[in-house]
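An instance follows:
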Amino acid sequence: MFENLSEKLENIFKKLKGRGVLNEENVNASLKEIRMALLEADVNFKVAKDFIEDVRTRAIGKEVLESITPGQQMVKIVHDRLVDLMGGVSANIKFGSRIPAPIMLVGLQGCGKTTTAVKLALLLSKEQKKVYLVSADVYRPAAMEQLKVLGRQINAGVFEANGLKDPVEICVQAVEEAKRNGYEVIIIDTAGRLHIDDLLMDELKKIKQKVNPAEIIYVADAMTGQDAVNVGSKFNEIIGIDGVIMTKMDGDARGGAALSLKAVIGKPIKFVGIGEKIENLEVFHPERMASRILGMGDILTLVEKAQANIDEKTALQLEKSIRKNNFSLEDFRNQLTQIKKMGSISDIMGMIPGLGKMKALKDAQPDDKELVKVTAIIDSMTKEERYDYLIIDGRRRKRIALGSGTSVQDVNRLLKNYTEIRKMMKKFNKKDGVKSLMRNFRF
């Protein structure tokens, strides 16, 4: 997400930091480029205009123009303004005092409400909440069945409509059922339409009136860009929303809707969907996102993902291998498998300051789809070969390729990437290695 915007901003700031002194003229020239980058990222026109004017007011002053590092001061101003634009702080769900607390998901058809309902249920269950699910979509074929199947995968309770056809009555009975069975939260998956119409809104108003939800969350498809913002404005105007879940963020390299929503609607993004898997829903942190947009990485999210997904014993073994300069192909395979649990490899690299831009590592990281092939190649090696790659000659490479169902070129590519990783590991291992490695990649 934000890939194109990040790249453009990186180039703009690189030129700025190359100047020893900044003046009003080159600040304005840079702001013009930033404005174009925001518009190309599909940021709302008025939002982009206000953003630039605010940055201009802060940047054209003694603090920046007379600073020893004016380029870095400019980056800080843009970073802080991006944080403000996206809401400033993370916005949590407010459950209120009612038990169960009804959370109502609204949005157009195809935005991913049903899968998002299950993803949110899983996320809340990790916070020790007992969650119940109900589908109020009586129009889409198999909508209720889809929620039931997905709900079973996370061991969540799912309300059985048993022939009920009225969405309002389904929600009322589901809340009563959840209360009887001791559930703390009930997530209501409402019906969507291809566009906003009176029938949809009347139905949602009735559900809201009967259920009195603790929160109404608008589910927005990031791929629809500014349409998602406009639709969100309508939902907020007619029924009132408390926050937004942005889905399909992994498929939108522009991200303009995410930057526009808070400013236009006045409601915060609370969660973002970053993949198709049930566990691919994350709390939205404006400050972390701003850092990632500006190429500063996101170490806090990386650490949280690592704590949740990486086996501690494997991590300790890797640390020993790196310290002894003995990072083997076996370690390489194990770490790729562990990292894959944390999300896409390119996404993980983007969380590490500087590494996402380093050509050696960019070339060395395999595509997520290639992970199975990489594992097969290493599995086809003998134990001796995994721990001493230098013995893998042409004859052994042919055998490994045959055993893994790949080509010799694939084996050669893997070994080349692995040796690049080893070189980087050596740099990390040296005294002040991390400092020297990162020196050219700071903001």
Summary: The chain is about 55% helix and 10% strand. Residues 23 and 337 are 50 Å apart (CA to CA).
